[in-house]
Design brief:
Helices cover 35% and strands 23% of the residues. The protein contains 16 helices and 24 strands. It is α/β, with parallel strands linked by helices and 479 residues long. It is elongated, with a radius of gyration of 23 Å. The protein has an eight-stranded parallel β-barrel with strand order 1-2-3-15-16-17-18-19, surrounded by eight helices. Helix 1 runs parallel beside helix 12, helix 5 runs parallel beside helix 7 and helix 10 packs across helix 12. The chain has three domains: 236 residues, Phosphoenolpyruvate-binding domains (TIM Barrel), CATH 3.20.20; 85 residues, M1 Pyruvate Kinase, Domain 3; 112 residues, Pyruvate kinase, C-terminal domain (Pyruvate Kinase, Chain: A, domain 1), CATH 3.40.1380.20.
């Protein structure tokens, strides 16, 4: 049997090991980036995962995006997580013949409609018109346009613009501070989830999660559809989501802090403290955390981020997030590759200067959690690197949770598990072929030496996931 990387049923090989940055980067695919040259450049620049936003495009486009990632994953020998982002019960503007320019003080009419000739704003969801009230503040495109409701009719209302702006089709819309009680999993979400399972996506991000039961409902659906190995990311973006974070974190596989929609429910000055609390609570449950929205927003139009954006990214890294997600910057911006490069530069500089945030107190710490913590502490005390073999990825998740200051290399026999682990803080996954766990770790060590990530005299703490009947789960070796 050959050593090193595993070549799957076709020609898949995941050999490239990320050993510089620990915080991972998620890039959103869209018209600006969905071509082979750009995606390849983003991967080389530091992208670890790619998001497909199901709010835009159709199955033909999404399938093209997914195939593009898989082709380049194989060619560049780097496992990449593929995330499908469900729309959820979001309110969105319908079709407009052309964008509508509004000026402060101008009164705009909103109607229940799928489309408009530009004389009014079409909204396809009736629930908005059932619950809107005079005096409500309407936020469009994450607050870029704000209006005050002045008159409410039957399936229509009028609102006065508070700021100048441009109303574009398919942009999100919200009533500030109001949750409209729409179903957490829509018919469209169900169809998108079916597509994601068939297209072999690794994660599904569930929008507007309000309770843990919302996550459980999606997982049960995935189980029925044969997608039990698809991980669910719960997006925290409403008041209910914040209030019920503990129950959500106990059900979800990962948490996303969706700062754009949080701004529709909370004053903007509260978002930084909310972000910090969501991160800490999620990590206390051992859940990987992703930060999203407007991280390098100015780079949609400019090749260099603003100073405040650099500080924002730096603070997120300091708070110990697993991944940072770029949206419009890579989906529709003029500088998608440059955005990845800048994100990586900021991450690496921050990580070189700072000790990552460590959560020392965890909820319901199990035997498996204590084992993972012991591995992290043992490796640190010896100045050793960590090599772990995991079938499901759970051991790697638990070790990553403790934010060890040493390198973590995770071997697995599963392509999907390797892809999913590419989102974990500080974890470098490699797919290896082996008859048993000993051979798997032998092949992993061989590969690390070949890539010059291990050298003579290095100490390695080798760990296996705890399983019933196992008599040996930890070894210490010197290269």
């Amino acid at each position: 049997m050959s050593r090193g990387c595993w070549r799957g049923g076709t020609t898949r090989r995941f050999c490239r090991v990320n050993h510089l940055k620990r915080t991972k980067i998620v890039a959103t695919l869209g018209p600006a980036s969905a071509n082979e040259a750009t995606v390849a450049a983003m991967i080389k620049a530091g992208a670890d995962a790619f998001r497909v936003n199901f709010s835009h495009g159709d199955e033909e486009a999404w399938e093209r995006y997914a195939k593009l990632v898989r082709v380049l994953e194989e060619r560049l020998e780097k496992g990449l997580a593929l995330i499908g982002d469900l729309t959820g019960p979001a309110l969105r503007i319908g079709k407009i013949s052309e964008p509508m320019r509004v000026e402060r003080g101008l009164t705009i009419e909103f109607r229940l409609s799928e489309a408009s000739d530009g004389s009014f704003v079409p909204i396809p969801q009736k629930r908005l018109f059932d619950e809107v009230e005079e005096g409500d503040e309407v936020l469009i495109d994450e607050g870029r346009i704000r209006l005050r409701v002045t008159d409410v009719g039957i399936d229509s209302f009028k609102a006065q613009a508070l700021i100048d702006g441009l109303i574009k089709p398919r942009k999100n819309l919200a009533l500030f501070g109001k949750e409209l009680g729409l179903p957490s999993l829509t018919d469209r979400d169900i169809e998108c989830a079916k597509f994601a399972v068939a297209a072999d996506f690794d994660y599904l991000a569930m929008s507007f999660v309000r309770t843990g039961s919302d996550v459980r409902r999606l997982k049960e659906f995935l189980d029925r559809e044969g997608g039990e190995d698809v991980k669910v990311i719960a997006k925290i973006e409403t008041k209910s989501g914040v209030e019920n974070l503990a129950s959500i974190a106990s059900e979800a596989d990962a948490i996303m802090v969706a700062r754009g929609d949080l701004g529709n429910f909370f004053p903007l000055e509260e978002i930084p403290s909310l972000q910090r609390e969501i991160i800490r609570t999620s990590l206390s449950f051992g859940r990987p955390v992703i930060i999203a929205t407007q991280l390098l927003e100015s780079m949609i139009a400019n090749p260099v981020p603003t100073r405040s954006e650099v500080v924002d990214v730096m603070e997120a890294v300091r708070e110990g997030v697993d991944a940072l997600m770029l949206a419009g910057e890579t989906a529709m911006g003029n500088y998608p590759v440059e955005a990845i490069r800048w994100m990586r530069r900021i991450i690496e500089k921050t990580e070189s200067d700072l000790t990552p945030t460590r959560i020392e107190t965890y909820r319901a710490e199990t035997l498996y959690d204590r084992f993972a913590r012991g591995i992290a502490l043992l490796a640190e005390s010896m100045g050793a690197k960590i090599a772990v073999y995991t079938r499901s990825g759970r051991t790697a998740v638990r070790i990553s949770r403790y934010r060890p200051t040493t390198a973590v290399y995770a071997a697995t026999g599963s392509v999907k598990v390797a892809r999913q682990m590419s989102m974990l803080w500080g974890v470098s996954p490699i797919v290896v072929e082996a008859r048993d766990r000993d051979e798997a770790l032998e092949n992993l060590l061989f590969r690390l030496k070949e890539e010059k990530l291990l050298s003579f005299g290095d100490i390695v703490v080798i760990a296996f996931g705890i399983r019933e009947g196992a008599t040996e789960v930890v070894r210490i070796v010197q290269v």
